[in-house]
Each structure stands twice: as C-alpha cells, then as structure tokens.
C-alpha cells in the first residue's frame, strides 16, 4: 500500500476577534511513499496551513488526516508530540539553528530523541558538510546553514520531510544547490518530501504539483516527465 497520507475534506478556520477566516475550505489529496510533492499558490492561499496540519503543528477544524491508516485528528497531545518528534522533519525559510551548538551538535540534538535516527556524521557527509561539522552557525553561509537544517530534519529518518519556502532566503545558485540536495535525499532515502513555495519554476522537479487557491485545491498535476534541478531555469 503506497498511499500513506490522505487529507479528506480538511477545513481550517481561524477567528481573529469576531471575524472568522477560512484558511482551508475542503482539501483532499493523497501522498504516496517516496513522492516529491510541490504545493504552489499565491500568498494567503493556504499552503503553510496545509503543511502545519500535515506536520501535526496545527489542527484541522473538520475533516480527516489519515497517516499510516490512522486518523491523526483523533490523536491526543502525547501522540501528536511523538508524531512531530519522530515522523516529521521540518525545514523552514530561516534555518533556526541553535547558535551555541556546532553544526554537528545541532543535528545530534535533534536525532537523539528519535528511536530510528540515522548517524548524524554520515548525514553531514551526505549534505556535503563533512569539513564544517565543528563550525557554529554564525561561521556558516546561508546555504550551508540550510544544509545543516536539512541534515537535522533528515537525521530523524522521518516518514515525511516538510519544507516551507526552503530557498526563500537564498540566492538562485545556492537555492538550486539546496533543491538538488533535496532531490538526492528523496531518491537515496525514499523520504516523502512536501515543499511549499510560491515559485512556480520549482514545479517541474516534483512528482506531483498541488496548486492551491483561496483555501481550495485548484489542480493536482502528476508529472510524468519530471526534470532534474539542473534543467530548471528561473
Ligand atoms: N494563526 C493564524 N491566525 C489567523 N489567520 C491565519 C493564521 N494562519 C494563517 N491565517 C490565515 O489563513 C490564510 C492562509 O494562510 P497561509 O499562511 O496558509 O497562506 P500561504 O499560502 O502559506 O501564504 P504565504 O505564501 O504568504 O506564506 C491567510 O488568509 C492567513 O491570513
């Protein structure tokens, strides 16, 4: 069974003061193991809300989220904490590294809490930072810090790697190198990656593109001929 995550009629409403805001308005999709998914949409479309609900950082107002056959909307806080800690890796636009830990210690710190974690040194090697393991975040470039953040997320050996605008703070060349790394990790480790971006140029590298507009799915496209990052121009 390859379909391991499912969103069924998911809605999310926020209330600011007396005013309700519908962030998600009936979202349905399925993710398969090892898939590289790009979620596209304009600012405010609901992309980050989908990612946050998928990662157990926020809860749906209604609908179901099925992970490995279980409906996580029924889980208690302890189950959600365990899901976030062990099954989901997060990569954000800003790297959020702990400044007084070295690059390797940042990765080890995250891996320690996970039962099935990978070897932090080996992951640092895979992300191309073997020579930088003892550097503090302030001694690394933006691209290198993002590599550490990716290593930290991947070292948990997660079911899902969620990336919210991971290249948003990087120049084009460094951004492409980070995407290349995500592409390689997706192939090597068969981790399902869900990447949120407003940059439509990234879409050709995905297996599946989910286009979101005003809290609804506008279109889901399966990409039969996906391109490697080198073949993408923007
Ligand atoms: N915590 C919150 N409280 C109230 N409203 C929120 C909250 N989070 C998101 N929203 C609203 O929900 C809608 C969807 O927001 P979301 O952040 O998911 O969009 P997005 O597509 O990720 O946008 P961006 O690309 O600008 O990050 C927006 O109208 C936003 O203002």
List keywords for this structure.
transport; nucleotide-binding; AAA+_ATPase; 234 residues; 29% strand; 4-stranded antiparallel sheet; 6-stranded mixed sheet; 6 helices; Rossmann fold; binds adenosine-5'-triphosphate; ATP-binding; alpha/beta; globular; 29% helix; 10 strands
General description of the model:
It is a single chain. With 234 residues, the chain is an alpha/beta fold. It is built from 6 helices and 10 strands; from the N terminus they run E-E-E-H-E-E-H-E-H-H-H-E-H-E-E-E. It has helices spanning 47-54, 77-87, 103-112, 120-126, 142-154, 172-189; strands at 3-16, 19-32, 36-40, 62-67, 70-71, 88-91, 160-164, 192-197, 208-213, 216-222. The strands form 2 sheets. A 6-stranded mixed sheet has the order 6-7-8-3-9-10, with helices on both faces. It has a 4-stranded antiparallel sheet with strand order 2-1-4-5, with helices on one face. Strand 4 (62-67) and strand 5 (70-71) form a beta hairpin. Helix 4 (120-126) packs across helix 5. The chain is globular and about 50 Å long. Adenosine-5'-triphosphate binds at residues 14, 16, 21, 23, 41, 43-49, 198. One of its GO terms (cellular component) is membrane protein complex. This is Putative ABC transport system ATP-binding protein. Keywords: ATP-binding, Nucleotide-binding, Transport.
């Amino acid at each position: 069974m390859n379909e391991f995550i499912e969103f069924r009629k998911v809605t999310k409403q926020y209330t600011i003061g007396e005013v309700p805001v519908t962030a998600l308005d009936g979202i349905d999709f399925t993710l398969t193991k090892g898939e590289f998914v790009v979620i596209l949409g304009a600012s405010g479309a609901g992309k980050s809300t989908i990612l946050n609900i998928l990662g157990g950082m926020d809860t749906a107002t209604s609908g179901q989220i099925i992970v490995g056959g279980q409906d996580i909307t029924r889980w208690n806080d302890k189950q959600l904490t365990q899901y976030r800690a062990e099954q989901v890796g997060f990569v954000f636009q800003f790297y959020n590294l702990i400044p007084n830990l070295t690059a390797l210690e940042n990765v080890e710190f995250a891996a320690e809490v996970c039962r099935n974690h990978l070897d932090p040194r080996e992951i640092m090697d895979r992300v191309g930072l073997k020579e930088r393991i003892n550097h503090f975040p302030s001694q690394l470039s933006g691209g290198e810090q993002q590599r550490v953040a990716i290593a930290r997320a991947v070292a948990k050996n997660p079911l899902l790697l969620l990336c919210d605008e991971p290249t948003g703070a990087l120049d084009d060349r460094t951004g492409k190198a980070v995407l290349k790394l995500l592409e390689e990790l997706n192939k090597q480790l068969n981790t399902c990656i869900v990447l949120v971006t407003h940059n439509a140029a990234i879409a050709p590298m995905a297996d599946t593109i989910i286009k979101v507009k005003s809290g609804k799915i506008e279109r889901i496209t399966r990409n039969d001929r996906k391109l490697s990052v080198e073949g993408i121009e923007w």
